[in-house]
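Ticket #4471: structure export looks truncated?
Reporter: QA, pipeline team
Priority: medium

Steps to reproduce: submit the single chain below to the structure queue and open the exported record.
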Amino acid sequence: MPFFSQGFRPFFLMAALWAAISMGIWITYWAGGMALTGPLLPLDWHVHELVFGYGGAVLCGFLLTAIPNWTRRPPLSGLPLAALALIWLAARIGFLIGPEEVSPSLIALDLAFPALFSAFAGREIIAGGNRRNLPVLAICVLFLIGDALFHWETLAGAGYYGGRIGIAVLVGLICLIGGRIIPAFTRNWLKAQGASALPAEMNGFDKATLALTVPALALWVALPAHPLTGIAGLALGALHILRLARWCGWATRTEPLLFTLHIAYGFVGLGFLLAGLAAFGLVPAMSTIHSWTVGAIGAMTLTVMSRATLGHSGRPLKAGWVETAFLAALPLAALSRIASTFPAAPVWTLHLSATLWIVGFGLFALRYAPVMIAPRHPA
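Actual output as written to the record:
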């Protein structure tokens, strides 16, 4: 069955559908149009289902597709892949319409998903001798820890450290993997266009920026309002924006499947700057979170999902009008959501952001559902 032949097929499609559906549910609840009576408090449900629900599905789909390319080992497919997808789906249904009390079995079901794909990633990376990507395994384990801590906090009525860990892990993955693929994809495309100016190669500046990103994100997770977090955020924001500036992004503006990768990475730098300003009380803390979640994570994952779906299904990496529309929707949603966090912002900025998010992921699902269920296109 083609749908369960590669990890990107079920998980990218389910992730996009869940991103649109869960946001529709959330904004309807927020506007007073429905109640959320599942086992999590409404805000906890919103955070968990987008960070660990959507984010987990995208992370799993990406790794199940990328790791076989890294290791030259067979991909997870067939019944094992279908079972993993069913575990993810069952957890989403459970947190939406389950009993009002969180049960240990539902938490175990939810945690089984990142535990299983982390175990698979670790086994394949180690068995394939792919030491370069061992940091990816560490990222998977941290994601699992964040999810587990989130559940403990909801039961204990304490903090949002788990949610911040989940966000930080996904931002860190964008810094690591995005820092590889964005300049590489850009370089290949510009060479094909006959351009002379090309993105800078990975060097000591990139490695230093990545090394400093880890403690900066850790500070934001642990002490988001501390002056040290403010200093680190402003410094890392400048470093990531400088890093991005070296990748010739403006030259790709005619190719949405590339240009949106650059825009999404820009929200990483903006998020750090906002984290720095928020630590000093100059901007709302929520502006940081939504720069990273809607702008960096949302736009980056949607673009990577599009490229991976086209490439691994044997189709050309070329954006039509549908791709252009849904890729434009996410950066606009991010800007609107960031604006909505400020006290004087009109309420329509929040509704606009949610609408653009739903349109972006909804169009992706409509455009690529037939591709996901069909055999690979002949070359």
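Status: closed, not a bug. The export was complete when the record was re-opened. Leaving a note from the reviewer for reference: The chain has a mean pLDDT of 95.
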